[in-house]
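Incident review: delayed structure delivery

Summary: a single-chain prediction request sat in the queue longer than the usual turnaround. Root cause was a stuck worker, restarted by the on-call engineer. No data loss occurred. The affected request and its eventual output are reproduced below so the record is complete for anyone auditing the incident later.

Affected input:
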Amino acid sequence: MAKILSYYKGEGLVEAQIGKHRLMVDKPRFSGGHDRGPTPIELFISSLGTCVAMVISTYCEEHGIDATDLQVEIQYETDADQTNMTCMTVDIEIPNGEIENREKAIERVAKHCSVHKTIQNLSNIEFSIMGKKEIISNVW
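Output delivered after worker restart:
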């Protein structure tokens, strides 16, 4: 099973180790963050946006469509306390590509990005919690 490790660095800052890459993620300002990195929600949304851009650019390349400057913009709304997303809109611009009535096909491709499929199909997330005592007992 693949894994990503996240380490609390203090003052709301968390470092995510993603393979050989490291990414700093901060709390939102309204929650005491200091804008030292994207918030978890921003990171989640950027995962969707980058995934959509990747699958669409591949589609464009395979069909002779110029994907130069392709852009995916995601707008989203949150609930009143800004802790949960309530809706999002994904706008895809292919400014240099002649898409010639391929809008529906491109939308189908976008919906097949692995992040979108995961959002649609994920049915369960399991949590395992270990404190100091449990961690020490697992070592011995």
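Verification: The chain is about 35% helix and 25% strand.
Action items: add queue-age alerting; document worker restart procedure.
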